Amino acid sequence: MNDQRTLRIGEVTLSPGMQHLAEALATCMQCGTCTASCPVAHEMDYTPRQILHLIELGMEQEVLSSRAMWVCASCFHCTARCPRGIEIADVMAALRNQATAQGYKPDKVMTFSKAFMTVVNHYGRVFEPELIIRYGLGTNPLALVGQAPFGISMFLKNKLPLRPDRMEDLREVRAIFDRSEKERSET
User: How do residues 109-146 score in pLDDT, each as one tens digit?
Assistant: First the structure.
């Protein structure tokens, strides 16, 4: 780690990719409000508080290989309730970007997250049939065949549309995705 941009906090050396996150988290007092506010913390391998602590400890590989950032619902409860004003949901988004950029092996949660974001970017909202197909192809394509009877049953009951319901104006949604892509390329 001879990079001049390497940040040292105490005895911990952080790579340039984690530097901005560590700086953003410098005021965290580990109160646990983020975890207490998180509606999906019970599904995470590390809670939001633990993720912040792992970053502080410089455990980059442990953080980037975790499922927590992929399970995060981006509901911003943690951000709204943080007594230090730390934008924890944005940290989780940055971790997703960094994990993807560094080639950490996708698991089912990451595959679902990517499929979901692709569909929302395309239509401005979720189109369930395409989401199911993208997720199925990314995890277990043969399982899609087994789900066909269920899909047909939902379609016959008018619970599954064949055509997506697109937003009339996708400019705002696309602007969000463009901004996210720009931020990803800057890290």
Answer: 778 888 998 999 889 888 989 999 999 998 888 888 88
CATH of domain 7-104: 1.10.1060.10
Strand partners, 9: 12
Q: Which of 159, 10, 29, 135 is nearest to 85 (CA)?
A: 29
CA angle 161, 162, 167 (to 5 degrees): 70
> For the chain, where do the domains classified as CATH 1.10.1060.10 start and end?
7-104
Taking residue 164's Cβ as centre, other Cβ atoms within 10 Å add up to 16
Whole-number Å distance between alpha carbons of 18 and 104: 15
Pairwise CA distance, residues 157 & 153, whole Å: 6
CA distance readout (Å), 31 to 10, 37, 82, 84, 167: 21, 12, 9, 10, 41
8 Å CB contact between 23 and 7: yes
Contact 120, 126 (CB under 8 A): yes
